[in-house]
Write a structure and sequence with these properties.
The chain is mainly α. It has one domain. It has helices at residues 25-41, 50-68, 80-102, 104-107, 119-148, 157-184, 188-196, 199-202, 214-220, 224-234, 247-273. Helix 1 (25-41) packs across helix 5, helix 3 (80-102) packs across helix 10 and helix 5 runs antiparallel to helix 6. The chain crosses the membrane at residues 49-71, 78-102, 122-148, 160-184, 190-209, 246-265. This is Transport permease protein.
Amino acid sequence: MSVPPAPATAPPDLRPRHRPARKFATLRVVMALILREMSSRYGRTPGGYLWGVLEPLAAILVLSIGFSLILRTPPLGTAFLLFYATGFLPFNLFNTVSQMVARSVTFSKPLLQYPAVTWIDAVLARFLLNSLTSVLVTLLLLGGVLVLTETRAVLDLAAILSAMALTMGLGLGVGVLNCALMGLFPVWELIWSVLTRPLFIASGVFFLYDDMPALAREILWYNPLIHLIGAMRSGFYPMYSAAYVSNLYVLAVAGGTLALGLLLMGRYHRDILNR
């Protein structure tokens, strides 16, 4: 009597099984990077976030006291503190965001070796954290100046918020472009530092664009920070029209630098990480 053959068994399925994508993966990574930077930058420093308020406050006080010894009244209004706060704080917002975004890949480089973490996550985390921190510091200091001093300011919230949003956008664009250039050419960090040292003087922090000679105005107009600081001041001084301000020009500079930075990072981010 013959034994029936055993039924053929199907070969095992050796194809790799893809894990289902985790929901909100990018948001989780960005939040983790934000918490990591908060603990490393502010958690180990005595005073923590207090220094983020004291540093710009000290700069505004030095400018106000120094120029009050020379001038009887500020170029706008009656309060030295408000005039220099509306100049320094937008400049500080741009400077902080652009510098921190430019170093985002370097700061998070060890974590970028993991597949779940991308250079875009690192850039977004630094942009969001430093933008929100600087905006809160700006609102806190400006609110304090308005409450504690006689400024006679009439607030135009639309102009103020628009100026701050454009400042953050410009900081992001310049920061992403510098992130790519510093990764490809490390000497660019030194070159950029030298090139931007005159920005504090040339951005209208302690003078009005309208008071400058015609030749100086023609040159300074191409500095987008001149437009942002003028727009910020127009939100506090209703008599100041700042007709030279062009939000479209600032948007073009911010969008152009961001597009070029994203293009370079998308093309060369692996080369930058492997350096």
